[in-house]
Amino acid sequence: MSTTMVRVRMDTGLKEQVDAALASMGLNMSTAVNAMARQIIHQGKLPFELYTTSPALREAIREAEEIRRHPEEHRAYTNAREMMEDILS
Predict the structure, then answer these.
(1) Is 83 helix (H, G, I), strand (E, B) or coil?
(2) Each residue of 9-63: pLDDT tens digit?
(3) Does residue 36 share a domain with residue 1?
(4) Number of domains within the chain
(5) What pTM was estimated for this model as a whole?
(6) H-helix segments, 7-78
(7) Contact criterion met (CB below 8 Å) for 67 and 74
(8) Which domain holds residue 63?
(9) Can you say whether residue 46 is alpha, beta or left, with left for phi > 0 and alpha for psi between -120 and 50 degrees?
């Protein structure tokens, strides 16, 4: 398998911290970048989540994902009246 060189600009302090963290896991930057690249191909997305949302929005997203994963555990309504009757009864 042929390889190619990839260059990345990074803050010096950040690189030092990443190198230390990776070394504690027995890895180096090249191995970590290759692992990330393979996961991007495998998953079709970044292998981690990026957030710029508020904590309240993150919680709402988490709840929505939970409902989507386990719909049998959550009540669904066909309209607002049905929901209000259930809530108020």
Answers:
(1) helix
(2) 999 999 999 999 999 999 999 999 999 999 999 999 999 987 777 889 889 999 9
(3) yes
(4) 2
(5) 0.55
(6) 12-24, 29-43, 55-69
(7) yes
(8) 50-89
(9) beta
